[in-house]
Amino acid sequence: MKNLLLLLVTVFTIVSCKKSERYGPLNLKNGQEVELLVSHRYGADNDLLLKLPGNVDAGASLSGFDEREPGYTYRVKARFNRDEVPLQDGPEYYFVFEKVISKEQYKGSESFIVQLITNYVVGGPNIRLSKTGNDYYMIPDKLQLTYANSTVQNELEEIWLNAQEIRANWQNGQRPKWKAIKATVVHDPQKFGKAYLVQQIQFID
Fold first, then answer.
1. Claim to verify: residue 116 and residue 198 sit in the same structural domain
2. Its domain of life (predicted)?
């Protein structure tokens, strides 16, 4: 009987410790619900996910927020998730979207930077540009890139031609012509929530 009692106490202690374990830079419990502030700068360099209150860097990504639109700031409820065994090359912890608390349209005109080359652990660098008809997209069917002038239009076309070359020769390990491509953008007032207006493109060799 004494041994059984000792075993139960040990199991309870282990389970209690597991429940109280905290992870990540914010020391959150697995399954803990939090409120997050999601930026209007979808896919930008400074697209920071902030934990409320306090607007502190959440230190992890948000999964499952498919209804997010560029140009809107959201307060959302999410659940912190820590995988016992993370997927290969996947994060150990992240937030899982639960619901929108509030949504507010961004009214400013400040420009920001988006990267048109992303680097993946598996597969290497990839150009984030596609084209449908005469329209360029950073995210197909979700985020269009319009252009402020003919110079930017010609540069987008040059990037698109290189992207096509890479996709045609991916088996040979062909890489982009540039190390990085930085596009300075604002929310396109003519297609708000659907497009970024590219003001300038910087190629980094």
1. yes
2. Bacteria
